[in-house]
């Protein structure tokens, strides 16, 4: 079996984490780079990722989560993906273009046509639609985190069951123009997790795929 597919088959949404085991600094850096190199619409990366190790903060977050409270408290790290609210301000676009200019050695004046195209594309959406769009981008980055973790034999669980406004308050995201979108926790499965030995259940190919 292909190694990537084998890794995906190995992983599952871990329910019980071993609080005594922590992801190493080296592996954490790989997970961060996997997120950093995730694809995003126009390459804009309209989000930030908050990595939480502090136990007191995690206890607070667990209290305003609907499920997997123990995972938030016992996993090695909690990743909160937060989309940029009302993305598309002049500074957002300028920051993006300045990064291109610096990375590729292109003078800023040569990027004015790109500025116009990116600005037009982003502002074609109303504010609410734009916030939905930036929130969706975080899920692509989350997927890269899950896949990278599986390749390292690190367990991971994606989570949507939480109160975004409470997360924003606890983490001070609102003041930063951010809003919590989705969570990923990483660590190592506990030997007592009853789900760890269950076979993965997925739709068969003939039910999942439509080839035209």
TrEMBL record:
Pfam families tied to this protein: Nitroreductase
Entry cofactors: FMN
Keywords: Flavoprotein, FMN, NADP, Oxidoreductase
Keyword NADP: yes
MF terms (GO), sorted A to Z: oxidoreductase activity
Source domain of life: Bacteria
Domain annotation Nitroreductase: ranges: 9-188
Family the UniProt entry places it in: Belongs to the nitroreductase family.
Protein name from the UniProt record: NAD(P)H-dependent oxidoreductase
Organism: Flavobacterium agri
């Amino acid at each position: 079996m292909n190694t990537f597919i084998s890794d995906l088959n190995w992983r599952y949404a871990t329910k019980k984490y071993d609080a005594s085991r922590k992801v190493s600094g080296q592996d954490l850096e790989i997970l961060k780079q996997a997120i950093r190199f995730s694809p995003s619409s126009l390459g804009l990366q309209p989000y930030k990722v908050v990595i939480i190790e502090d136990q007191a903060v995690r206890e607070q977050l667990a209290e305003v989560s609907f499920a997997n409270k123990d995972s938030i408290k016992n996993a090695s790290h909690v990743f909160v993906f937060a989309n940029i609210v009302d993305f598309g301000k002049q500074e957002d676009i300028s920051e993006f273009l300045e990064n291109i200019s610096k990375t590729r050695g292109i003078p800023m004046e040569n990027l004015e046509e790109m500025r116009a195209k990116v600005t037009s594309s982003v502002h074609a959406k109303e504010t609410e639609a734009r916030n939905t769009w930036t929130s969706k981008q975080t899920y692509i980055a989350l997927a890269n985190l899950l896949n990278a973790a599986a390749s390292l034999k690190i367990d991971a669980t994606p989570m949507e069951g939480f109160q975004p406004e409470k997360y924003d308050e606890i983490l001070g995201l609102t003041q930063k123009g951010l809003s919590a979108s989705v969570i990923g926790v990483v660590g190592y499965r506990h030997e007592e997790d009853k789900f760890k030995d269950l076979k993965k259940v997925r739709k068969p190919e003939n039910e999942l795929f439509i080839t035209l």
